[in-house]
Design a protein that fits this description.
Blueprint lengths: L2 H10 L17 H4 L4 H14 L1 H4 L5 H7 L4 E2 L13 H7 L7 H23 L8 H23 L2 E3 L8 E3 L1 H15 L14 H19 L10 H17 L22 E5 L10 H4 L22 E2 L1 H11 L11 E2 L12 E2 L8 E4 L1 E2 L1 E3 L1 E2 L2 E2 L7 E5 L1 E2 L4 E5 L1 E2 L17 E3 L18 E5 H16 L2 H14 L14 H12 L5 H7 L24 H6 L14
Keywords: Cell outer membrane, Membrane, Signal
Subcellular location: Cell outer membrane
Protein name: RagB/SusD family nutrient uptake outer membrane protein
């Protein structure tokens, strides 16, 4: 797809009216497109449908509400002040969120914007003479279904609208599941197979269908004491995961962290992802969100540092410790990747700029990296970058080491800048022009490892097929041969599979959905003691309810808020 056309229409093309009763957009006047070829015009119509995804997947939107609301991530008031934000992150982690939470509002608005853009494309593409328009129309309808999956998962409802001028109808429960299912099934025949992970393909729809069927028990009755999984749903999970695996189109990455590298667009494990290549105005927010304010991953950018954001909880870290006993969890190649040799050899304090890469995975203990003084990085006598022990210089605490500790909570001590083990899963883009924006790493939505583990779960839930489920889990573990792969498991159960999903998909915005499906979301962890099952879905933003107040009974708040 032409990147210049993408950027042109993403910037110029569509203004969203956020009211949930309208979902209207201002369609470009024909004068803007009269000089474009049919192909360029069709590209410009479908591009905005995808262009909202990087904004949805920023650190304070979908990531925050899918991760900080779980036992994987916690974001206290750093230093007693930073990330205060009127307590929204404390409330999110403790399941005390309200309908005025700005991150929930932003996520809601962005998802509806994506849905509205899809509707605009659906209404516009049929008049195109471009042969690709048929595929683009299927993609637009499929993306409308994907955005509907997000609203169903997060807020427990789906908006149904086919024409710009009509008011959306609202579906919940089984009707919502059946609607999304029918939409995905209808577009699958008209989708392509080899369009890359940044566009909706047959494989992507198969993966989304498998995810929908697996979570259907929750979506049909989100407040049930425990989900009722239907065998016919589990059969469909197996059917669609089988189709993906049998296609041979996708491949488990031998290097786990390469899945999240800045050049991952061609990684064959990715099935569906947010296309973040630099030309598409992506971002590095998932890369810098957790890092210390004194960690600078890019030698070219002395202002591109971390934010001392969320850490993993001690509860989640302890699942790794429990799994590996006397061995350090780093025996699992998904846990940690050491890229700076100074950690094992203190004499290696000079690194060529082009060879500098910070460590990846879960970062513990004293951190080393580029030393920044008075806004510039220090260099060795030979011109290489000076690497050494890091201190909290950016926090005006030059004697306080950047030493990540396991303990992190909402207390003053537990909120210090260096508390909590940090996560550096996505790689900073070295082609960035700012260090923060124009990140290149595609953000994963569906990847092949999830296909194997969904199939394993479906087999366990349907017939307790331990042999097949264990084979799928160990296939994923054995694939990471870049270093010594994780040791094979000798047994499997739903609890062990849940733990395995945590190891494989931490920080990938699947945890909340997994916790609900496995019956773990009402558990207690870190600062969270709330066991209210109403918190499984989020409150509808008050602004949306207020905006719909002219239609009595149209949009009602979710129970418990």
């Amino acid at each position: 797809m032409n990147k210049k056309i993408y950027a042109f229409f993403a910037l110029l093309g569509i203004l969203t009216i956020e009211s949930c009763t309208n979902l209207d957009e201002v369609v470009l006047d024909e004068s803007f497109t009269s000089n474009l070829s049919a192909k360029q015009a069709a590209d410009g119509i479908i591009s905005p449908v995808y262009a909202v995804l990087p904004s949805i997947f920023t650190h304070t939107n979908y990531f925050a509400i899918q991760e900080i609301s779980t036992d994987e991530a916690i974001l206290p008031y750093r230093g007693g002040t930073d990330w205060g934000d009127n307590g929204i992150y404390l409330a999110l982690h403790a399941h005390n969120q309200t309908s005025t939470d700005p991150n929930l509002k932003n996520t809601w608005n962005l998802i509806l914007q994506g849905m509205s853009r899809s509707i605009t494309a659906i209404n516009t593409l049929p008049s195109s003479s471009e042969p690709a328009a048929k595929t683009y129309l299927a993609e637009a309808k499929g993306m409308r279904a994907y955005y509907s999956m997000l609203t169903l998962d997060l807020f427990g409802l789906v908006f149904v609208k086919n024409d710009i001028g009509e008011t959306s109808s609202i579906l919940r429960g089984d009707k919502a599941v059946e609607y999304i299912k029918s939409e995905l099934l209808a577009v699958e025949p008209n989708l392509e197979t080899n369009v890359g992970p940044g566009r909706l393909s047959k494989g992507a729809v198969w993966g989304l269908l498998a995810r929908l069927y697996l979570n259907a028990a929750v979506y049909r009755d989100p407040y049930a004491a425990s989900p009722t999984f239907k065998n016919e749903d589990l059969d469909k999970v197996i059917e669609y995961t089988d189709k993906i695996i049998a296609s041979g189109q996708y491949q488990l990455s031998r290097d786990y962290f390469a899945i999240f590298n800045s050049d991952n667009h061609t990684n064959k494990e990715l099935i569906f992802a947010v296309d973040q290549r630099a030309e598409l105005n992506g971002h590095n927010r998932l890369a810098y969100f957790s890092l210390s304010g004194d960690q600078f991953p890019l030698p070219a950018y002395p202002n591109a540092n971390g934010t001392d954001g969320p850490a993993i909880t001690s509860d989640f870290y302890r699942t790794w410790v429990s799994a590996y006993g006397s061995q350090d969890p780093k025996v699992d190649p998904r846990f940690y990747r050491e890229n700076l040799s100074i950690y094992s050899n203190p004499a290696d304090s000079c690194v060529a700029a082009e060879n500098f890469n910070i460590n990846r995975g879960i970062l513990r203990g004293q951190q080393y990296g580029l030393i920044r003084k008075n806004g510039v990085f220090l260099k060795c006598a030979d011109g290489k970058m000076k690497v050494g022990k890091l201190f909290n210089d950016t926090r005006n605490k030059s004697t306080l080491p950047v030493d990540f500790t396991e303990k992190v909570d909402f207390t003053t001590e537990g909120s210090n800048y260096s508390t909590g083990y940090r996560v550096e899963k996505y790689e900073f883009s070295k082609k960035s022009v700012s260090g923060r924006n124009f990140g290149e790493a595609d953000i994963v939505i569906v990847r092949l490892a999830d296909i194997y583990l969904m199939r394993a779960e479906a087999k366990l839930r349907k017939s307790n097929d331990v042999t097949s489920a264990l084979a799928d889990v160990n296939t994923v573990r054995a694939a990471r041969t870049y270093s010594t792969p994780a040791p094979a498991l000798t047994s499997i159960s739903l609890d062990l599979l849940y733990r395995e999903r945590g190891f494989e998909f931490y920080w990938e915005m699947l945890r909340r959905t997994d916790m609900i499906r496995f019956g773990k979301y009402e558990d207690k962890w870190t600062e969270k003691t709330n066991t209210d099952k109403n918190k499984r879905i989020f409150p509808i933003p008050q602004t949306a309810i207020d905006g719909a107040s002219n239609i009595p009974g149209y949009l009602t708040q979710n129970q418990g808020y």
